[in-house]
Write a structure and sequence with these properties.
alpha/beta, 19% strand, 8-stranded mixed beta sheet, Rossmann fold
Length: 295
């Protein structure tokens, strides 16, 4: 199998983001959704609005998010809109809380856990294409968060997040935490959810960028994240989300940075690579890649 291309730059800047997007050769058409994490209030590692604004402007994009399954400051619609504003995203581009008016079910063809359904914010139908603009970092439950997690849990509605976390047992956000004991089922469910999103847009209408800066062992959904122990790495991008997350995972594992230990341990503890393995098994991408340095 031919290796997928993963582009890389050390330049973590607005210019670097635009340059790496252009290197992809993507042609995101029509109404473009730019999927980010708005970050839980109290946290501070989410992507800086000033960093992403020029790329969002270039795409004439809309920043999109969905509500959380846990009862934090982004669980209720009004609170999440306040987070858009407090964290600076509302001021830089149009924003859309995709599940504030409910959800729709996307078909999942090859589900083991999700019973052929992925529940996503109903506003997804407003968009013709999507850029997964992800902050690559650790995660307390998934081990790490990159393009695949942003596309699955991130695009899922509040109830859809519960569906994924409970690997297809409940859409009730207050009950889904009863099912966290099966880690691999959770990770596999995220991969299955990605299949629904990719089939909805089609692969040619999607692109993926991971920004590896402020690499904490904790996700942007943490209101009190651990301070980063690793140095910033750079920006990675691909038209293949499997290759992209595999590459970023490998960068952490193989890093010579002495600060990697906590994150490596977390990724191993949570069997984080399983989401990549399952996405590859589903035919969503290729774990073999080549890095193309654009600096």
């Amino acid at each position: 199998m031919q290796k997928s291309k993963v582009y890389f730059t050390k330049d973590i800047s607005s210019d670097g983001l635009i340059k790496i997007y252009q290197a992809l050769g993507a042609n995101l058409k029509g109404n473009v959704a730019v999927k980010i994490s708005t970050g839980e209030p109290g946290g501070h590692n989410f992507l800086n609005p000033s960093l992403i604004k020029p790329l969002v402007d270039k795409l004439n994009g809309t920043i999109v998010e969905c509500r959380t399954a846990y009862r934090g400051k982004r669980f209720e619609t009004a609170d999440h809109w306040q987070t858009f504003k407090d964290h600076g995203f509302y001021d830089i581009a149009p924003c859309d809380l995709m599940d504030e008016d409910g959800e729709i079910a996307l078909d999942v063809k090859n589900s083991t856990h999700l019973k052929d359904k992925n529940y996503v914010g109903s506003h997804i139908t407003r968009y013709d294409s999507m850029l997964m603009l992800s902050h690559f970092k650790g995660h307390a439950m998934a081990g790490f968060g990159g393009a695949l997690k942003n596309m699955s849990i991130g695009v899922a509605s509040r109830n859809g997040k519960a569906w994924i976390h409970s690997w297809g047992n409940t859409t009730d956000p207050d009950k889904c935490w009863e099912y966290v004991q099966n880690q691999d089922a959770f990770l596999e469910s995220m991969a299955e959810a990605c299949e629904g999103v990719i089939d909805h847009f089609t692969p040619q209408n999607m692109a993926y960028i991971n920004v590896a800066n402020r690499i904490s062992i904790d996700c942007d959904c943490d209101s009190n994240p651990h301070e980063p122990e690793m140095k910033d790495i750079g920006i990675f991008a691909s038209l293949d989300p499997v290759a992209l997350d595999q590459c970023c995972y490998d960068q952490i594992i193989n890093s010579t940075d002495s600060g990697k230990t906590s994150l490596v341990n977390r990724m191993h503890e949570k069997h984080a690579i399983r989401i990549v393995e399952r996405a590859s098994e589903l035919g969503l991408g290729n774990r073999k890649y080549e890095i193309i340095d654009i600096d």
